[in-house]
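User: Could you walk me through two proteins back to back? I'd like the raw sequence and the structure tokens for each, with a short line separating them so I can tell where one ends and the next begins.

Assistant: Of course. Protein one, sequence then structure:
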Amino acid sequence: MKLSVGMRVANSLSLTPQLQQAIRLLQLSSLELEQEIQLQLDSNPLLEKIEEHSSVESLSEYEDKEIEKKDLTNELNANHLPDDLPVDTDWDDVYTHQPTSLGSIEYEEREDNRQGGLSLKDHMLDQVNLLNFSLVDKLIAHCIIDSLDEKGFLESSTEEITFSVQHLLDSMEYDEEVEESEVLVVLKHIQRLEPIGIASRTLAECLQVQLDALNKNVPFRSEAIKLLNFYELLIANDLPKLLKQTHLNIEQLKQAISLLKTLKPYPGEEFENKDFDYQIPDVVVTKKNEHWFVQLNPDVMPKLRVNSYYANMIRRADQSDDNQYLRSQMLEAKNFIKSIDERHKTLLKVATCIVEHQRAFFEIGAEGMKPLVLRDIAEEVELHESTVSRVTTNKYMLTPRGLFELKYFFSSHVGTTSGGEASSTAIRAKIKKLIAEENILKPLSDNAISNLLKEDGIEVARRTVAKYRESLHIPSSSERKVLI
């Protein structure tokens, strides 16, 4: 084999650092983007953020005033720089706005007035401190309260609580034995505190405590207590056996069940933390004059620019380390600003295309959802599917119908009898609507729902209906059936 050296010309794709940065910024959520921008602001002195509601005085003007005050040397004066600097006042150097912004968003801004409420355990401890408990009983009460879950039920058994209390007493060198009966006595006191039924071990016990706390003259109270004695039959909705075991008639059984429904099954539910992590929308959709408009949320659009003062310090012919550092930082700042702008342009383009495809959804709701896949959007906006996937990940759209992730508008399709296609999201909405309108005495089976959908021209098998129903967390027809 003969070895030789030669030259060959070929085309190949390469991911430049700028392209890698643009791809990485594209898939970031609004919160992650904010963190990335702050990181760049902290590390790059030539990148600055234009703060709203503040004077637009440039740093160079401020520095000129400081130079006059302190009589610094003229080495840093911009007037001594050559005329052929690589910077001027064009967009490349001063970035004061985002060109993808389509004006101010017309939606009401509300102040966050959420307040931290009292937790369930703190609420219970405040009541226990008012009781005339001994030191041991208070210790038992604290152990019981520590064992409460978010719903207000007791997670630990009385044996475990007894063991924990005894261990604490031994560690404090307190010479006293604790019996399980003492724990049960304290537990009964706590169960009658507010909210009634707290620290119950089962749902039946919780309802029983609440019934016991009711006035004896409450109608059908005794009948409801009888039903709790056959709690398993009540949960199984086995009404014929309930009537036989409780010796109640249909009317008494109906009124007793109605009384049980007025009780609180989860006494600690009102103390659950209601502060959810609210998502900030990236895109806002509004309707004006029968037309839908798509706009970027200005609150998540950073206003960045290159610092003019530091940029004016760059000398073209100077090869010093400081000058080279400023050059590299200015290049990074420009690339970062352009990547941010490209991200917003792509997001706006994809969101606008989605709104055009799903116009029926915005008009009539989920039943109007059209089948849509990433390839459809990618072909229309002339982007790769992977790019569209990055754009729609962790991005949210605020619409008159609520806040939705962009991924929500993509769904698989099911064939129709007319040869068309129907979105799986629309089918789920139709199933939910059919079940909501059904006769509770004769609920629709999966097969009946499938036949009703066929009448609307949607070919869906019974197994598919069952899968969609379960995804909506709707029980089966036998569990939805109400006999009285």
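----
Protein two, same layout:
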Amino acid sequence: MAVESARIDVEHGSHEMEFCYVPTRSEESGSNSIFTTNVAVSADDAEGFCRRYSDRWQIEKEYKTIKYDFLATTSSKDYRVRPSYFVFAALLYNLWRLTDVLLKAGVSTEIVDFSPYLTAGEFVDYVAKYLRPAD
């Protein structure tokens, strides 16, 4: 682990920033993850700081999944439609993650990672197939 300080000059001033170099979680890759921040971080605190940063990144990835895989598009000018669509998309996302965890639990006794066994697209296809009324 290493931390480097730098000063960034921009048009309207400058500010201090830190580069945190942390080994990736997979030992065979031999590479580092690089995080930048404007918070003063010591080399001893870099690993914990970057782990918290990675947890935050997981939240951002989950929001992106909701937005691109579950959120319906609308051009409605009614202000109540968009929040309703987002709540429905979040419920679908949570149902997908629950289904995925139950599938993983049925396959093995230990769940080690966040990678889905059932993809979001497959889940949406199943939901659309079984919720659509038969002709």
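The first strand starts at residue 2 and ends at 10.

Let me know if you want the two compared in more detail.
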